Structures are given as structure tokens and as C-alpha cells.
Amino acid sequence: MAVTTPRPGAGPLTPALAQQIAGDTSEIVGFNILITDAHGTVIGSGDTSRVGSFHEASLEVIRTRLSATHSAAQARALEGVRPGVTLPILLNGQAVGTVGITGSPAQVTRFGLMVERQTEILLHQASLLRSTLQRERELEDLVRSILAFDPQVTEASTLLDQANDQGVDLTARRVAVVVHLPGRTPAPSTTSEWLPRALVLLRESFQHRQTIAASIGASRYVVFAHPTADGMGGILAQARNCVEQFRAHLGLDVEIGVGTGAAGPTHMRTAYEDASDALHLGRRITRRSVTTIDEVRMEQLLSGVSLRARQRYTAALASPLVASGDWGTVRSTVIAWCESGFSLVGAARRLHIHRNTLIHRLERIEKLQGWSERTAVAYLALYLACKTNEFDAGPHLTRDSSSVR
Fold it and tell me: Is residue 77 within a helix (H) or strand (E), and if so which, with residue range?
């Protein structure tokens, strides 16, 4: 039966890795270590002049997967071979190359199994790393395809098939979460920790086999979190725990935006856009570590309108109030009045003022506006103007600021 051998450089036994192993091991054992690929070509050696040469003895070792020793006389009869021992390098039962030790067979044979085993361990780790990194690249490609999905350009079935090949069911409902890390993304702490620590923490925080978490930028991650038994409340608990984990393990204060639940490529993209808006607007509005899109829906709507249009609207609805000299107080009063459901008690409590003071303020607002009666519709229109102005005021003002822009 013919022995199938991989193409040079196609597997984990790359020339760079082979040279590193051969060079380091040669220094440790005090004998020259030589590594070949599956075709007998030297790809690593403590004696770098031998790299690229042909090592004839390796072909028989690869074929039989058995070690061989060569005396000086035997070595002279073979191309590129010197006295010593040659052993197969096995990965998943397949010979992917050989490792040879130059010297008297009686002296170097005792090092053979040690060097062979160490090389195979390093190759196994390299193979796992390649597999892990390949899986991560495929997952990142899938996530980017979801975020860029356009049903007029790509069939949804194509993306569903791509996901199924990776064991991911895109028809399952998930909640979109976007995470921003300030500063540089922490690198793996050790050579055995192959994934960025930030990604490991994210997957530990949103644990579920159908949760998707991937890097989409130098300091930005997206998570499509599988819903918990507690629904959105459970997702928020996971997000807050995630913040604490980053503080505890990495010393970072991360920012998280939580979007909506969605299933399928089209809705998942929309949910991601909501999560991104929640992250961006949360910095300006809530200034908390975790912000949900439902907390900033009004601001999300306003951000979709041009600044000039927003300013025109505020001027058209609230010019007399802005000119009154206490616009900050008026704005906070209107917002509290509307957001409390037009409740005098609720609005007064929110503003920390007496009920009669609130009544006086409302009467003054209505007089300046020229209203003949108090209506919910008029106040809602004015409320939108106040929220627009508050939104444009920027993050340096609080909700109840009396400053006027």
C-alpha cells in the first residue's frame, strides 16, 4: 500500500518550526539534530548548511515508520547521510517527517526517543494551534458575513449553509452584544493560551455552545448570545458579570451595548446595528458600562436625523422658551413632566420640587408658548424638541443641567 505524504509546508511541520526545534534541541543534547519533511528534504538542522539537502535514509524510515541507525560505512553509501540514528515523526499515526541525530549510534541512540517524543509533542501543539486559528478565522468570516449581509446580494441559504458547516444554527434566536475594549487588546499570556484573553473572558461570560463570539476589530468584539432562561434579564446579568470579569482579570473597564434578539442573517444584522448604536449612545447618554438599545431608542432616532434638521426643529418648537433665560430648567421640567406620564406627583418627585412649583412652571411654559390649553400632543412635540436639544448638548451636560447651548 502506498504511503500518502503531505505537501511540503502544508502541515504543522513547517520549515520555521523545524529549524527552531532542531536548533534549540542541538544546543541542549550537544549533538546535531536534523529534521526532514516527508520527502526526505532537510528543513531544519543545528548545522544550517545542511538545510535544503536530501537525506536518503529518511525515505525508508518514513515508509516503514521505524527508526534506523547508520554506522559510518552505512552512511557513506547513502546520499546526505552521516553516522547516527534516524526516527520517524508521527502525527495522528502518519509519518510527516524524520528527526536524525548525528554521532556514533552507540552514543546518540539513547537520545533518540527523547528527541522524537519532544518533537511530536511540539508538532501536536502546533497542529492544535493551526486548527484553533483556522476555526477562529472561519468564525470571524461568518460573523463578518452576517454583519455585511444584504439579501439583495447574497442568498440567506448560502450563509445558513456556511454556518451549518461550522456547527452553527443561525435560525436559533440570539441577542446581539457589542463589546468595546479601551486601549490595546490584551495578547495571550502564554504560548499555551492561543486565543486573546479578552475573547476567552467573553465566551466564559456568555456561556452556551450556540453563542457566537468573535473579534471584529483591534478593540471591538461582537457576541450573539444565546438567550437564558431569564430572557433579556439574564443577558444583562451576563453582560454586567462580563464587565466585572474584565476589571478583575485584565484591569479594563469595558463598554457593552446590548441590542435585540434575532434569528436569521437579516435580523441578526439589524440586532447588531442596534447593539452598536446602544454602545455608541450609551457613552453620551447613560454613561454606564452596559447600555441596552431600549434605553436609548429616542436618541437612536435622533441620531438618524441631520444636526441641521434637529436644530431647526428645536428652534421651531421652543424658541420662546430658549429665549426666556432659564432654558435648562424649562427643558428638564418638560422632560420630567412627559416621562412621568403627565403626573404632577411623579414629575415633582423626579425634579425634587414642590407640586405647586411644578404647576407654576407648567403655567409659565404654556404662557410663553402661547398655548390656550394644556394638551398631551403639544407637550409631546415640545418634549421631542427638548430631547433633541439635550442630545445635541453633548456628554458634558447632565439631564438636569441648566446650561443653555
Answer: none
All structural domains of the chain, each given as residue ranges with its CATH number in brackets, are 15-130 (3.30.450.40), 148-301 (3.30.70.270), 306-393 (1.10.10.2840)
pTM above 0.85, yes or no: no
Question: Which residue carries 539537502 as its cell?
Answer: 53
Tell me the DSSP string of 7-34.
PTTTSS--HHHHHHHHHHHHHHHSS-EE
Predicted confidence (pLDDT) per residue in 142-194, tens digit: 889 999 888 888 888 888 888 888 888 899 999 999 999 886 655 554 444 55
Could you tell me if 42 and 53 are in contact, meaning their C-beta atoms sit under 8 angstroms apart?
yes
Task: Give the integer Cα–Cα distance in Å for 191 and 203.
Answer: 20
Gyration radius of the chain's alpha carbons: 34
Its sign, for the CA torsion 387, 391, 397, 403, is negative
Residue written as grid cell 486601549: 183
Q: In a 3-state reduction of DSSP, which class is residue 263?
A: coil
Long-range pairs of 367-371 with CB within 8 A, sequence gap ≥ 24:
368/320, 368/321, 368/324, 369/320, 369/321, 370/320
N residues, the chain: 405
Contact 47, 14 (CB under 8 A): no
